[in-house]
């Protein structure tokens, strides 16, 4: 942290702002996870942290170390890429497990598997529409 | 080209990742290059379907749209979190019939839908190509169908199909 003095004011302000935004969004995501009622509502809240929560902190890091090192630093972008690519895997596994459980328990409000089957005739229309 | 480097884009991306994580020096370039070539040939042994990029120049446009939409829905979900408990809000499932068939395109759509707060990819049926998503603040079901189809799916179809 001895380097902090070398940071120009505009970069320090921008870094502070971005870190606060990122940390704030992640915190709100955590609060949301606590406050929302059902599993499928809860699943939305942590994505605040994995989208712009991460994004803002990554940007802050880029701004800070680019200003300090007087050359552009882009390593942090990799963190963003890896998080964006790996989040859906976990989320889809969790969502499918919850869906399976809720269907097995016949919970109300959970769509049955049958709505994913095409109504007759519509599937072919969709096929020809997709081919064009 | 195809024998020596079965996945040129993957190889280049791996090399770039390696050099970002270590340093931009000739030594790391050679080491990273060797690893990237070996890894992409290992990938070829797994024989995944090779993604085709038909209109790669549309990718920055898609990335821009997605970044803005995610920012907007970040604000929307943050507002919902901060709301008082009493206010009425309905969440629910939406079934979307998709036309996009390309597997890479569907994977990108999954990344977009899950990294957007407020929408979550729940289930996708391969036979009927219907996608089930969960929406946190559901007002207009048809609106979500047209949003996903016109905003993301049409661009993805242009890029991948």
Query: Unreliable stretches of chain A, pLDDT < 50, 5 or more residues?
Result: 121-132
Q: What percent strand of chain B?
A: 5-15%
The stretches of 5 or more residues of chain B where confidence is low (pLDDT under 50) are none
- Mean pLDDT rating of chain A: 80
Q: In percent, how much strand structure appears in the residues of chain A?
A: under 5%
| Number of structural units classed as domains of chain A | 1
Q: What do the pLDDT scores of chain B average to?
A: 85
Share of residues in helices of chain A: over 70%
Question: What sequence of helices (H) and strands (E) makes up the elements of chain B?
Answer: HHHEHEEH
Indicate the percent of residues in helices of chain B: 55-70%
Distance between the termini of chain B: 23 Å
Distance from N terminus to C terminus of chain A (CA atoms, Å) equals: 59 Å
Main sheet: strands, sense, barrel of chain A:
none
**Cα-atom radius of gyration of chain A:** 22 Å
How does this model look, in words?
The complex is a heterodimer of chains A (132) and B (161). Chain A has 132 residues and is mostly helical. Chain A has one domain (8-106). Chain A is built from five helices and no strands. In chain B, helix 3 runs antiparallel to helix 5 (141-160) and helix 4 crosses helix 5 (141-160). Chains A and B meet through helix 1, helix 3, helix 4 and helix 5 of A and helix 1, helix 3, strand 1, helix 4 and strand 2 of B.
């Amino acid at each position: 942290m001895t380097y902090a003095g070398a940071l120009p004011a505009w970069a320090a302000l921008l870094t502070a702002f971005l870190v606060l935004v990122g940390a704030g969004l992640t915190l709100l995501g955590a609060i949301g996870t606590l406050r929302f009622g059902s599993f499928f509502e809860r699943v939305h809240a942590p994505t605040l942290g994995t989208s712009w929560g991460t994004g803002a902190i990554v940007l802050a890091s880029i701004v800070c170390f680019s200003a300090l090192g007087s050359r552009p630093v882009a390593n942090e972008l990799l963190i963003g890429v890896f998080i964006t690519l790996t989040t859906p895997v976990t989320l889809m596994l969790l969502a499918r497990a919850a869906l399976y459980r809720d269907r097995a328990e016949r919970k109300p409000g959970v769509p049955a598997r049958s709505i994913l089957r095409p109504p007759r005739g519509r599937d072919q229309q969709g096929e020809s529409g997709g081919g064009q | 080209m195809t024998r020596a480097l079965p996945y040129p884009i993957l190889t280049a991306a791996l090399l770039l990742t390696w050099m970002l994580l270590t340093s931009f020096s000739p030594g790391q370039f050679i080491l990273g290059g060797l690893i990237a070539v070996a890894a992409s040939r290992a990938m070829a042994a797994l024989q995944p379907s090779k993604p085709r990029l038909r209109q790669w120049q549309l990718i920055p446009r898609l990335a821009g749209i997605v970044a803005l939409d995610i920012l907007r829905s970040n604000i929307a979900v943050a507002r919902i979190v901060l709301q008082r408990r009493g206010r009425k809000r309905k969440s629910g499932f939406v079934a979307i019939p998709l036309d996009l068939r390309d597997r890479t395109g569907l994977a990108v759509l999954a990344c977009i839908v899950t990294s957007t707060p407020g929408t979550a990819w729940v289930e996708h049926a391969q036979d009927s190509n219907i996608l089930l998503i969960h929406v946190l603040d559901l007002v207009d079901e048809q609106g979500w169908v047209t949003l996903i189809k016109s905003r993301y799916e049409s661009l993805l179809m242009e890029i991948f199909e």
